Amino acid sequence: MALLQGPVYEAYRTELIKRYKHLLRSLGKTISKEKIKLVRDAFDMAARAHEGTVRKSGEPYIFHPLAVAEIAVSELGLGVTSVVCALLHDVVEDTDITLEDIEHRFGKDVANIIDGLTKISTVFETVDKDHSIQAENFKKMLLTLGDDLKVILIKLCDRLHNMRTLGSVSENTKLKIASETLFIYAPLAHRLGLNAVKTEMEDLSLKFTNPTLYREISDKLAETKNVRQRYVKEFIDPLKNELELSGLNIVEIKGRPKSIYSIVKKMEKQQIPFEEVYDAFAIRVIVDSPLFLEKADCWRVYSIVSDMYRSHTNRLRDWLSHPKSNGYSALHTTVLGPKGRWVEVQIRSKRMDDIAERGLAAHWRYKSGGKSIATPQDDAFDSWLDAVKETLSNSDLSALDLVSEFRTSLLGEEIYIFTPKGDVKALPAGSTALDFAFAIHTELGKRTLGAKVNSKLVSIQSPLKNGDIVEILTTSKSRVTRDWIDVAKTARAKSKIREALKAERTQKAKQGRLILERLFRKHQLQFTDSNIKKLMHHFKYQVGAEFFHSVAEGQIRLNRELLLKIVLKKTVESAEQPETLPVKGNISASNKRKQSDQIIIGDDYEMPYSLSKCCHPVPGDPIFGFITVGEGVKIHRTTCPNATRLMSQYGYRIIPAQWRGDGYQKAFDTAIAVRGIDDVGIVSRITDIISKDMEVNMKSINISSNEDGTFGGKIEVMIYDLLHLEQLIAKIKATHKYIEVMRED
After folding, report:
1. pLDDT of residue 583
2. Three-state SS for 336?
3. pTM higher than 0.85 for the full model?
């Protein structure tokens, strides 16, 4: 290493060789000498290319591609080609090595993967509201799904290692990268079946976006660890004995704690504290069975579990018969365990467990293993990949729209819908009858008139439920309208609808051109580009296709007098140029500064800003600035519901911001949610505490009683800082044993 000398250099070499040898051991003893040489050549090229380069942490850069390669092997189970690509994934972008050099040494396949992994330039000639650098990056990454899926897998390994080493970058960069990860990378890992990767990404994202909450839940999990372990043992021991007596080959029975992120999401969704999250863990039973006995053995385990513990009738999930589209297959049931606690039990075969954790990589490995029996996972996984490739290859959406719609398909829970003949289609929860029609066939979708759901007539926008039997009713002609884009929920259906509308619009434009051409001929005028431009300028059209479409639709009517007047005009003024959006940092001077003495934005104390109404930041909240178009800078909390989307899609508009100090004289608007057991005078006591004891002004109050004896609602208050808010919440909580108070976004 050029910059190191003496003992430091020797220490570096020792550590480098140690990590390289560990990588070789991870690949296994059966690897051939030819493949070892291939890995060694890739390692040597990467080490020479990155020599003298260090990361933000001060660590030699070569340790990063080594770590990415190690993740690819040890955690995803990928092979030599992926290792070579992981070692070289940054060399084209960061060094003088070219794709041609890589192709010459390692072949075209490796070069193609490296090309897919190479990041696009972050420099654009223009930046406007419809484009984002991050979105363009995401779009390019997603498009590689149609080429070599190894690109995505290695990209996820790269992102995972970046998240593990995120502590060395600036706070603003942490927020951006963590938000990107949560926005697109974690959902993508989920859809590819990489459960372990997805879970760690979510937890690490939470760690950097909301460190206080992360530490709080982490500490509580640590405090309750011994209690959980005792309970798990109490649950497992008798079950283990019964399973051993059954003759089943049980590989493992263990308690798996929920991830910190999933616990937080459950707390938020159900509006409950940590102490009320009773299913903070699940019991997993893994059975070793030959392929043809997997389903039967899993059901045998289920029978034994349900005999020992009473099962929840509505909480059985059968993903054996109908695996998820990411290949996940298992039985899930919820049973009443010791001490009257509901416990989730997951039942899988050894092969299913491998696929559940390593997803796509494991799926490939088993698929290429020469098994004699096809599994439902094959069809589920392959069908999803085919649908994704079709959607991406045919989509003409903007980067933001594509990423947004694709992300929806990544995140959604799945439902299973049946045709009258018994065929099944997996769709995201919330899908409509129209989505189902397009899932069967594009032409069927375009001719959809309505549907029969469980023999009942419904409209195309009717949402479907799991297990519905759906018959699509059609007409002989295509009836696609623009409204259908809002009706459809799946990316595939939306893409096909846009394609149909585009084709129809193109056909209409051709008709409009013919109409106009006949009109010119009728009045003995020349049908030239110059004359067309005169008409477009007169009617204020910038695009010819749009103009011709309007002619065909009858929106533009031309008589002889008007046509001659426009065409025979000698000069035509140039059309006004469309207004462009300001580039980064170009904030309109007309924006009035608000609270200018309270917040520091970047290094500029004079930049105009306003507080976002979506999250109501108050002094003490971690915040960031978002450069808007025409409204100066909007200040958001880092925990704002919109923060992840803004940071991931519009990272170039994010700027650091911080509160100037304390002792603010101005009150800030925020809201608190209250709920609890109803009691006489409870609302009066709460309002007295707010207005009299704490001397806090209330902007509004909306509290109502429920039939179940509880009450709940929202109160908007004016407070001075975060400490003031926390004191108010604590004071209200102290009024009653069974009352919950929390800040509301």
Report:
1. 37
2. strand
3. no
